[in-house]
Amino acid sequence: MGFDGRRVVSFESRRAQEMADLVARQGGAPLSAPTMREIPVEQNAEALAFAERLFGGGFDVVLLLTGVGTRMLAKAVETKYSRERFAEGLKGVVTVARGPKPVAALREMGLKPTVLVPEPNTWRDVLTTLDRQSPVAGKRVAVQEYGQPNPELIEGLKGRGAEVTAVPVYQWALPEDLGPLRHAIREIAGGRADFALFTSATQARHLFQVAEADGTAGALREGFRRVCIGSIGPIASEGILAEGLKADYEPDSPHMGELVRDLARRGGDLLHKKRTAHEGGIDTHGWRRVDMAWGAEAERRAATADSAFMKACRREKADYTPIWLMRQAGRYQREYRELRATVPFLDLCKTPDLAAEVTLMAVDRLGADAAIIFADILLVLEPMGVDLEFSKGEGPVIHNPVRTAQDVDRLREVTGEELGYVFEALRVTRRALRPDIPLIGFAGAPFTVASYAVEGGGSRHYEHTKGLMYRDKGAWDALMERLTRLLTGYLNAQIAAGADAVQLFDSWVGCLSPDDYAAFVLPHMKRLIDGLKKPTPVLHFGTGNPSLLELMKQAGGDVIGLDWRVDLADAWARLGDDVAVMGNLDPIALFASPNEIRRQAQRILDKAAGRPGHIFNLGHGILPGASPDHVAVLVDAVHELSAR
Ligand code: CP3
Hints:
The protein is of the alpha/beta class. The protein folds into three domains: 7-36 and 176-287, 3-Layer(aba) Sandwich (Rossmann fold), CATH 3.40.50.10090; 39-173, Rossmann fold (3-Layer(aba) Sandwich); 317-445 and 483-642, TIM Barrel, CATH 3.20.20. The chain has 27 helices and 19 strands. A seven-stranded parallel β-sheet has the order 11-14-15-16-17-18-19. Coproporphyrinogen III is lined by residues 326-331, 340, 345, 372, 374, 376-378, 390, 395-396, 442, 458, 505, 507, 620-621.
């Protein structure tokens, strides 16, 4: 379990023992290699000079970068002046705290910062926060520096017209005994280390400083090609990058315990992937997930076909119950949010390398048994001439909704092959995805896509959609037929591009009665599913109305997706055992405690009772507020509890 006896190097100094204990508790063999020693500046001339200038009204803004540094600064000043006097001095200026630690240090002096820089509080965040809340042009700014100076920050401030004074209060040096660090360098260079954990940029710099002085930096850098590198957060990752390496994993929030726990959980797969890449000639110092290559196509196909997910689709026995989650790539993930901060959603969908990267990222972080291509059900509307936009906070908006027979006639007749970027994303993903992980293609079902086209966005009562349906069956059928032809072509092209299975999302069909489903939806769904290339498994998912299940089965699909409002055992009994089932966990269960999540997973596994043909999933997509840790807890729980 966990690290499974693998060797985990950490560069911690003050917290070396704590880190070693964390690693050991997760089943790893810790190797501590301290890289730093703190040197308090006893008679800190700069600190005193700073205080005197502060008291004389010589500063407008004081930037406090670290908690330890702020405390050290106070201590140095207190060798000559009272704490009260120092606090008074700070009260007269704009104080800027980079994150919660300087805030805590200020609180000890009875102060509150004027400006707080939010997480992840890199030097860029400091600058953008100042730009927004307290521009520094023409201001006299003091920067408390702790350890290494931060030239980018200083330059950024100067570039904005500030007069900057650096106040170094503390410094890092190399440890007196370099023995353990040199030993770690030999182990990494010699291929005897599996993981390396960095919790600061200085650790990376000191490590290479020693290696360069010893003439071992080249061998160390080569050795790192086969080591899985964990980084506590973006600042440490920048430091790792500056040494010519790349962090393979960052936890969602910057805590030592989280870094160790996550790598213990998923690090084995990452390490295997990195070493396979290296052996395949890929430069693992600069790779992206999409650069991965796994070898011969015939073997790849065999491994995919033999996976737990594909077996479940065929209702064959598997070693465990496979799990993947709808919306497994999305806003609940830090990596996704960071990428989305730089790329609008539609651009992300339309850039194959990025869509593939996000698809692969979700599988890596979750440990899921299937990937689902990153795209959206509404993309098919664009080539038809529907004007689609994803606006912030509101979801999809369609500026020219389809409300009448004339509107339907105006839609362009398309084959589904227009969405080349989705097929390219599938090809890139399939090449880079682990062979034993199937890739799911998808589309919205005609009713759900039509509901967006007709309403012009999301809806509560579907009055325009049902209105068209009831008022003008001819126009409704024409719309559904057009969508059905398009979606058939689109899904078959996805299969040709590498999708191992396809899912139809009929997310909103539950607003219909069984009779209306039978009259207005079922014939189209049946034609669509019958038109898909066999034997690719079809997953047919709907929500909201358990009474539709038998009719959905009649329409087709190898796997029927259930929401959480039905009992899985009842639903499967009604559907019959000639079909597989998927889903059923309430997405809100992810907001419960890990113990409750495990209990809920067990409950659903009990309902499936080990019958072949069960794929674990949520009853609908993961919500943006879900905790990535809880999602991982669920995946692990399903694997553990279902192991046969
Ligand atoms: O499951 C995955 O990880 C693959 C990607 C995927 C997305 N949308 C990405 C997405 C899939 C399978 C979908 C399907 C989808 N899209 C459905 C059916 C599934 C469901 O949830 O019922 C529906 C109804 C849509 C339409 C849609 N797309 C809406 C209503 C919204 C906005 C509201 C919301 O939930 O975010 C989207 C945007 C969207 N699609 C996002 C993602 C990751 C969020 C966009 C962002 O980054 O801001």
